Amino acid sequence: MSAVATDLLVAPHGGELVDRTGERPEDLEGLETVVLTSRELSDLDMLASGALSPLEGFMGRADYEGVVEEMHLASDLPWALPVCLAVAAAPAGERVALTDESGRALAVLDVEEVYPYDREREAERCFRTTDTEHPGVARLMGQKPLYLAGRVTVFERAVPQFPELALDPTDTRAAFAERGWRRVVGFQTRNPIHRAHEYLTKVALETVDGLLVHPLVGDTKSDDVPAATRVECYRVLLDGYYPADRVLLAAFPAAMRYAGPREAIWHALLRKNYGCSHFVVGRDHAGVGSYYGTYDAQRIFDEFGPGELGIEPMFFEHTFFCRTCGAMASTKTCPHGADERVFLSGTKVRELLVAGERPPEEFTRSEVAEVLIEAYRAS
Ligand SMILES: [Zn+2]
User: Fold this and answer.
1) How far, in Å, from the CA of 331 to the mean position of ligand 1?
2) How confident is the model over 104-131, as pLDDT tens digits?
3) 24 is catalytic
4) Quick check: is 191 catalytic?
5) 318-330: average pLDDT
6) Residue 82 preceded by cis peptide, ω within 30
7) Phi and psi for 48 in degrees, rounded to 5?
8) Which pLDDT tens digit goes with each residue over 218-273?
9) Active site residue: 20, 39, 173, 190, which one?
């Protein structure tokens, strides 16, 4: 694949892909260590791969303040969520080793700054609530009291849950270029793809060159469908119903924050780093419970100037099969009533699957239903 071809893709956020991978340092043994949470570990790995470009490490105070208050980094680039490392106390040295919970060293961080932060304010600004029933707020409130900032150098990458789906931004960009794609739409999901999602990804694909199905496989709530089951659903659906040269399946290694609107912006900016020019934003993107309005995650894009984000959001309505239209549709495209629409609640779908029954074909492809039924049977 030629460099010329990847140049045709959208530029990474900030202009260049960051690479924070490097050699294991000689002085590692003597360093003070900081143990990272699973969310911090996934951020660390995305810092290594450039998925969080232009960030080169955990955020300092100026970036943090700008992001929390104004959704912009100190450089004035848009950015929607803090990427911070919480610690109990300031380290004594200028450099610390970052480890996972088993104590395995993965990276070093060159200490630039240690600063206190206001959990309530961060929750209010980023999550629009301080309710600790909110999983993102609960995690924030349980964090250690100081943020440790500095560039990281990662010498041990995270072991991916799905190695064949572990594509870094350089890999997806190369794959897009190889297929001759210039305009690519990214689709974020943390659920199995039902017909509604199949429809909207295909409507999006009609207007661009390629589709990146980019399921989130990092930490999610324990009641979301397990990642392995979801990945199997994507495989059977893509194999059976999408042209192989128009779609790429890869894992998005981020941990869910459930920050709704702000996370929609953040997800879009990260997909730009992966080479996407467009990004699907449905109803209540990255939401949880009833903390966010149905369209809040779409409206928030209006808070940025034209072209400022450098990735085009594609907004979608709730979609369904309409018996009168005889097709998939949405309230934008179908004038018929609710009685004509094949719609099942999440609870109803779960009930059917647990009982070993397939939801209607207009709602879920039978191949996908089989995978889900099998998974419920095994659990
Ligand atoms: Zn209709």
Assistant:
1) 9
2) 999 999 999 999 999 999 999 999 999 9
3) no
4) yes
5) 95
6) no
7) -60, -45
8) 666 666 678 888 899 999 999 999 999 999 999 999 988 999 999 999 999 999 99
9) 190
**163: amino acid identity, one letter:** P
Query: With 70 as the cut, is the pLDDT of residue 5 above it?
Result: no
- The average pLDDT across 352-378 equals 92
Ion ligand 1: residues, CB within 5 A, are 322, 324-325, 334, 336
| Tens digits of residue pLDDT in 187-211 | 998 788 889 999 999 999 999 999 9
Q: What is the mean pLDDT of residues 271-280?
A: 98
* pLDDT at residue 346, rounded to an integer: 79
The tokens for 158 are: 């995270």
Q: How many CB atoms lie under 10 A from the CB of residue 69?
A: 10
Pair 249, 234: CB distance under 8 Å: yes
Q: How far is the CA of 317 from the centre of ligand 1 (A)?
A: 14
Instruction: Return the pLDDT at 220.
Output: 62
